Each structure stands twice: as structure tokens, then as C-alpha cells.
Request: fold
Amino acid sequence: MMNRREVLCSGLAVAAMPSLGVGRLPPEKLDMSIIDNDDDESLTFAARCRSLGVATKNVRGNVSNLWFDDLYHYWRRSPKPIGGLTSHSTWFLLDMMARDAGMRTIYRGDHQRLGQGAMEHRLFGIHPPGSARMLRGATGSRWAAAVAMMVTAPDRTSADRQGNSTRHARKRMVGNDTIISWVIASPAAFTPLKLLGAVEP
Reply:
């Protein structure tokens, strides 16, 4: 249950949106996507990203090289958003490194394999409208292509305000049967939704 302070912050944030010009979040194209595996889902995700004009890097578990050789310099030039479909450990390391550059995870999706091709999808933070419905309708590895469309979409106007914030995602325990989709970006453009609790401070 929200306390009085959180209710007041939410009200202020909603009231501020039109005056700040962020009733719709500013479009910002994803410049880079990350995978760390050669499984069907990762390759489907990468292929879809490339078809949408987004370069993809496969780190194959070597996050340190990505940081020191690429991301550190990339974010010093410009805090452009990146996204990916990776293991939880790869996302966790990138999220921690991103904080040193003033970036935050603004969206995270947990995609759990349930067996016999079935998947369970849970979305946290800011994501395009209709994302959950799009994932429910995707079968086989096609859900990874749907995730690529979500991650690369510049229109991120939907924020789940019913407990599914990136803060809640961070507290979840996930196993090896769960793949993580994510977007890391500068939180500056998302201040109203940050106040609403969609993005972790």
C-alpha cells in the first residue's frame, strides 16, 4: 500500500507531466543491443534488432571487455540508451557499471522457461504500450523477436504503477531458466515516471 508521501508524489508527477511536455516520453533510438548467448532466443532477438537498424554485440559472458573497450567510452561521449536479452548475471553487472555513468535500468523483463515451449513473462518499469499482450501472443522463439521490438521502440509510454517497478525487479530471485530483457538509459528524461515509482532512483 502506498503511504501518504508516495500518494502526494504520484499526484505531483501526474500534474507535472503536461507542463513538462512528457505526456509521451521523448523518442530516443536505441543505438546498441547486447546478447550473451548463441541460443535460438538470443539469435532471434539479435536478428530482429539488426533488421530494425540496431547493432548487436554478443559478449558471451565477457562483460568486462564490453565495459572497458566500448561502453565506458560510449557513455562518456553521450548517455545513449542500450538494451539487451541476456542472463541475469550479465544484466546485473551492466546495471551496476551503468550506475557509475549515471545511467539506470528503466525497463526489465523476466522471461521464464516453464517447459514444453511455454514461457512466463513479467515486465517491470517503462515499456511500450501493449507489450504484455504482444508477448502473450508470441509462440516458440518468436517471443524474442517481440522483445526486440519492445526494447528498440522509442515510444516508451507505459509504466506499470501497481508494484512492477524496476525496484521490485531487483528484489526478485531468478534462476537459470529465466532470461532478462532490459533497457539502460539516462533517467533524466523520465523524472515524472521516476516519481511515480516506475524507475528506481
